[in-house]
Amino acid sequence: MHRLVFLLLLLLPGAAFAQPSFDVSCENVVQITITRIKDTYWNVDSYQGHFHILDLTLTPEAARKAVKLRDATPTEHIRYRGEDYYKPRIVITAHGVPLQDDTPALSGFVDQGAAIGIIREEDAFDAARAVCPALVPDKVLIDGQVE
After folding, report:
1. Each residue's pLDDT tens digit, 17-34
2. What is the pLDDT of residue 146?
3. Which H or E element spans position 96?
4. Rounded Cα–Cα distance for residues 96 and 94 (Å)
């Protein structure tokens, strides 16, 4: 019995340092949009002059869970391109696999969904397909306008 308790205690520190995650899929996402934004406005380091926001609109129940997780997660200091950000750092996964996040300082949860910064358009579409192939948009929005 003492061995079992000892082994369980060895496992606890790893759980304490584990980064929280939130899984997205066709089950809890109702809409996916991809928006191209100029990188200079957001101080994003991209070689092409723009980056993309993968915007996931969650079901009301999933949104409540995501906000609850966001609010319960301690903030973390993230220094990105000379600027300081303090925010909860939650890994967004699709079917258990972390989604690409090129701008962790800018990505995260809002009240009704999640936004993830991804530099290349192809990578944004790959991430959308990983979340829910049926919801992949057929157009990229450019500052709110369809291309």
Report:
1. 468 999 999 999 999 999
2. 53
3. none
4. 5
